[in-house]
Design brief:
The chain has 143 residues and is an alpha+beta fold. It has two domains: 1-41, no CATH class; 47-128, Orthogonal Bundle (NinB fold). The protein has four helices and four strands. The protein has helices at residues 19-28, 47-67, 74-85, 110-128; strands at 7-10, 13-16, 87-91, 98-102. The strands form two sheets. It has a two-stranded antiparallel sheet with strand order 1-2. The chain has a two-stranded antiparallel ribbon with strand order 3-4. Strand 3 (87-91) and strand 4 form a beta hairpin. Helix 2 (47-67) crosses helix 3 (74-85) and helix 2 (47-67) runs parallel beside helix 4. It is elongated, with a radius of gyration of 21 Å. The N and C termini lie far apart (53 Å). The relative contact order is 0.13.
Length: 143
């Protein structure tokens, strides 16, 4: 089990934000030693970014892939986006062959997520002739 909490550095002193909650969790583990990990707090993508991604970006990319003759779901479209626009390259040292290893988008901060979406928008325009509007941009659709 894992517990995550915010810790603030105030004049050289570490201060726990939810000390009582953390103590309760520690007691529930019924042990005397713990592993402590410290990392810089990052702001993850916002709920608005997530709604824009799943409500606008993914459906429009799905539409573009469908118009190119592919049968895809929203989930497979998301997997495609991760593999093409959010990946780590791994190299076979013996052969020099490079493969893409998709990363989870949930670990991206707001800036990284926005940058990924910009790459998706450029690709969609070039490959699928699909325009993905900016978040909050109003569009008119003729029926």
């Amino acid at each position: 089990m894992k517990y995550t909490s915010t810790i603030r550095l105030d004049n050289g002193v570490l201060k726990l934000v939810n000390k009582a909650e953390m103590l309760k969790f520690a007691l529930s583990l019924n042990c005397k030693e713990f592993v402590f990990t410290l990392e810089k707090k990052r702001s993850k993508r916002s709920n608005e970014q997530n709604r824009y991604y799943w409500g606008v970006v993914v459906p429009l990319v799905k539409q573009g892939l469908t118009e190119l003759g592919n049968v895809v779901s929203l989930e497979s479209t998301h997997d495609f986006i991760k593999s093409e626009f959010n990946y780590k390259e791994i190299v076979n040292e013996t052969t020099g062959e490079v493969k893409k290893l998709p990363n989870s988008t949930t670990q991206l901060n707001k800036t990284e997520f926005s940058e990924m979406i910009e790459r998706v928008k450029i690709w969609s325009a070039e490959w699928c002739n699909i325009y993905i509007p900016d978040a909050g941009e109003q569009m008119t659709i003729e029926l």
